[in-house]
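One record is given unchanged without comment:
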Amino acid sequence: MNDISRNNWNAMSDDRILSQIGEFVKHHRMEQNKTQAMLAEDAGISRSTLSLLERGDTVTVATLIRVLRVLDQLHIMDVFVVVRRQSPLALAQAERKKKQRVSFPKRRKTDKSNNENIDW
């Protein structure tokens, strides 16, 4: 299997990338000692669709996900997770807006007539 860090994905053609994906699938299938028929059945696809994938032909993303799931390789989808980063300025502004202390509700002024009725 090729070391992915050596690949320049931007320089590759779409066909070469599809071929690389096919090699990845085939490598992991064979590593798990599964035939195309076994993997295809477990993934709920036809053997010919799996063959297309391994040859680098176009298949749907859903098909690829099914195959990766069966091969226990879904972790490679981590690269698609979007991490929202807050700018340092926005972070500082948010910190400044945080409450610095607890405030109690304002007390209502009591009516003097109510206070006069209190027996001490």
